[in-house]
Structure formats: C-alpha cells, structure tokens
From TrEMBL, chain A:
Gene Ontology annotations of biological process type: tRNA 5'-leader removal
Keywords (A to Z) from UniProt: tRNA processing
Organism of origin: Nothobranchius furzeri
Biological classification of the source: Eukaryota, Metazoa, Chordata, Craniata, Vertebrata
Identification of the protein by name: Ribonuclease P/MRP 14 subunit
Similarity comment text for this entry: Belongs to the eukaryotic/archaeal RNase P protein component 2 family.
Family annotation (SUPFAM superfamilies): Rnp2-like
Entries under Pfam families matching the protein: RNase_P_Rpp14
A single MF term (Gene Ontology): ribonuclease P RNA binding
UniProtKB/TrEMBL annotation, chain B:
GO BP terms: endonucleolytic cleavage in ITS1 to separate SSU-rRNA from 5.8S rRNA and LSU-rRNA from tricistronic rRNA transcript (SSU-rRNA, 5.8S rRNA, LSU-rRNA); tRNA 5'-leader removal
GO MF annotations in UniProt: ribonuclease MRP activity; ribonuclease P activity
Gene Ontology terms: cellular component: multimeric ribonuclease P complex; ribonuclease MRP complex
UniProt lineage: Eukaryota, Metazoa, Chordata, Craniata, Vertebrata
Record-given protein name: Transcript variant X2
PANTHER family reported for this sequence: RIBONUCLEASE P PROTEIN SUBUNIT P40 (PTHR15396:SF1)
The organism of origin for this protein: Nothobranchius furzeri (Turquoise killifish)
Coiled coil: none
Length: 114, 291
C-alpha cells in the first residue's frame, strides 16, 4: 500500500487497471411490457443466464445488484473485474424470461461507480 | 452554484465557422470552449475547441481523407487504422485568417468535408460579444447548468483517512446513485457495504450540476467549499467529483481520449477543514496518465 504521508508531504500513487470491480447499468426489455419483476427475480434470471452459457462455474460468479428500479427495470450491477466478460456475454445472450422473449440493454459500463 | 456560467447549444453548426475571423479575438484570449454534442467518439466525427485555442477533430478514415489536413492516427485504433486525430493551434501565425494553414483547413471543412455538427459553446464573460454574430446565423438555445440537490439523513460514512481509494470512490458513487449501503454482506442481492470503520452522519447534502461547465466556475466552487469547511465543525468534509464528457476527443492535458468501454475521465477532490485533501484522478486504460 502507499507510504504514510509526511507532515508537509505530497504523496502520489498511480494505479493502472487497479479497480477491483466493474459496474454495469443495464435495462431489461420484455416482450410483454406490463410484466414486472423484483430484484430477487432479476438476480435469479441473470444467474440462470450465467449457468446456461458458462455452466456451474459461471453460475457461481459472484455479482451484486446494487440498485434496481422496478418501474423502468433498470439495474446497477457490480462484478469483479475478471468476471465482466462472463457476465456481459451472458446478459447479451439472455433471450427468455419465463416464457416470453427478453433482452438486456447494457446502458453503461465502467470500472468506477461514479 | 447559481452563478455557474450558461452555455449555448447550436444546432448543425458548420465547423468552418469556428475559423471565422470574428471569433479569432476571443479564441486568442482563451475565453471560448466548445464541444460537439451528440457525437460518439468511436463512431462519429467529434470536435473540441480548447480554451488555449486548439481545435481538435477526431475523424474516421474517409472523413480524414476528405478533409485533406495532416493529422495522426488515433491511439485507440484496433488492428486497422480507422480513426485519425487532427489537432490545430488556431493561435499560430499560419492559422491567422489568410494564412496557408487557415486556408487549407477552411477549404477542407467548408468544401471537401462540409462538416456540420450540433455544438456546445461556452465562454468567459468577456467573450460573449464576439459570439453574437455567429449565433445570429444559426439555430441556437441558451442553457443554464442543471442543478439538483438532495438532503441526506443518517448517512453511513467511512473513515476517509483509512479508506483505500477504490472503496472511497465506490462509496461516493453509491451515495450519488442512491445505492443503499444497508444490506449485510451475506444478503442474496448485494454484498456491498460501507467500508469499515464507519460512522453515521445525521445530515449531508448531495448536489449535482450538469452542463458544459467552465474550469474557473469549478475553481470558484472549490474556494467556496473550502471557506465553508473553515467555518463548520472539525469532522466535516466536502467531496467534489468533476466528470469530463465520455465522448470528448480530449482528456487530461490536450491528450487524446477514447471510450473503450466506459469513457471515464474524472477527478474527485475530497477536502478537509485542515486544508488537507485527497485528489483522485481517473481515466480509461489507454488514455494518457493524468498530470
């Protein structure tokens, strides 16, 4: 870690690719626009997608639903940086929720939550 | 915050108008800032007018060849050379109206490429008059920066002195996005918690200002925040985050900016009453390292 700062010190640390997490803002679009789901159902849907594409190992990928707006079906997800490709690819290929067609639109991706 | 400068949005501005002699005085004084609006840095032509008088164009290969002005391949090219950056110092003697460089660029923008884009334009107070002839020729609207405030109560807040930078930035982002830190680390939905050690603040204020903001307005805000911190309790702090535009062709210094997946270029200044501060600067993986 960085050295302690001296009494009149100026300390600069440069971290390259140091962010441990990636953040994704996604929106779920459903064939039946009246359908609603809660955050738990959303997370279960994403886990199902991970399992379908990446198997049991994929399904075990930890990710967080930091925020979910039930009205607009928009969520902010957090995943470790190494898991971004797995998560993003399974969101892209997620085609069905229960029996209706669905799609995840990835609105924004960043290494920072800001 | 109410004294942040307003800015203009000009619809379908022919970019050659930025070379108009009437604007030259304001550009030389360094009081004009501009950025193309609604253009994507990886797909469209993006234009930035820097306060030091530098005009930066980020173009795809066909547009670059049509323009006929020398530039450099983009640092963000992947395998094939498909994007180019043209950077021109409008204060240079060759770029004075009638000069060789000026004529070449003007011809390129006006006749060959005929580049037009929606454009955001801002200026220091002394530059306003010289923009009027330009504005009178096109469809424009004036905008005030959008300010919104939220009062927060019972905010769980980490100990900033011991918090690592990524956790700190994550927490600040969570407050701004209204993401709860309340879930326990064993919850199904989210394991995100406020970094330890933490404390609960009874009151806090979160403010957001959105628009084409001028650096001197931001600096004035920083001075006001510092004064405010001096007058309040010892344990207070202020955090200021400033974001650059995701699709801007330039980032820190005058260096090229690309979007990759996030397009982030921002800084966060965390200030304390004893004049100490933490400054975090962040940018994309292939952008130039901030100064």
């Amino acid at each position: 870690g960085p050295d302690p700062i001296g009494s009149s010190g100026f300390h600069r640390t440069v971290l390259k690719n140091g962010s441990p997490y990636c953040y994704m803002k996604v929106c779920l679009v459903l064939q039946d626009q009246e359908t609603r789901l809660n955050a738990v159902e959303l997370k279960s849907l994403i886990i199902t997608g991970l399992k379908d594409l990446h198997g049991e190992v994929g399904a075990a990928l930890p990710f967080d639903v930091l925020k979910f707006d039930e009205g607009s079906l928009t969520a902010v997800l957090r995943v470790c940086s190494g898991g971004l490709v797995k998560l993003w690819s399974s969101l892209t290929l997620q085609g069905y929720y229960q029996s209706q067609a669905c799609a995840f639109r990835v609105l924004q991706v960043s290494r920072f939550n800001l | 915050m109410n004294t942040f400068s307003s800015f203009y949005l000009i619809k379908k501005l022919p970019v050659h108008e930025l070379l108009d002699p009437g604007l030259q005085g304001a550009i030389n004084q360094g009081v004009v800032y501009g950025l193309s609006f609604g253009t994507r840095i990886d797909e469209d032509t993006c234009v930035a007018l820097m306060p030091k008088g530098r005009l930066v164009l980020s173009l795809d290969k066909d547009s670059y060849e049509l323009l006929g002005v020398e530039g450099k391949p983009s640092r963000f090219n992947h395998r094939t050379c498909s994007r180019f950056v043209v950077s021109v110092d409008l204060t240079d003697s060759s770029m004075a109206p009638g000069g060789r460089g000026h004529t070449r660029l003007l011809t390129g923008l006006r006749s060959h490429l005929q580049l037009q884009t929606d454009f955001l334009l801002s200026h220091h107070p002394e530059g306003g008059a010289s923009l009027q002839p330009l504005l009178s020729r096109y469809d424009w609207s004036k905008h005030e920066p959008e300010v919104s405030c939220r009062h927060l109560t019972d905010l769980t807040c980490p100990d900033f002195r011991s918090c690592d930078c990524h956790s700190l930035l994550e927490w600040i982002g969570a407050v701004e996005a209204d993401i709860s830190c309340e879930s326990s680390s064993s919850s199904f939905l989210s394991s995100f918690t406020c970094p330890e050690p933490n404390d609960v603040l009874s009151h806090a204020l979160s403010v957001s200002i959105c628009g084409l903001l001028l650096p001197h307005d931001v600096q004035r805000l920083i001075q006001e925040l510092r004064c405010h911190l001096q007058q309040t309790q010892l344990e207070s702090w202020a955090s200021l985050t400033v974001h650059g535009f995701i699709d801007s062709p330039v980032s820190w210094g005058d260096n090229e900016h690309g979007v990759l997946s996030g397009g982030e270029n921002f800084y966060n200044l965390l200030m304390f009453p004893d004049h100490t501060y933490h400054l975090h600067l962040a940018t994309g993986a292939y952008d130039t390292c901030p100064p």
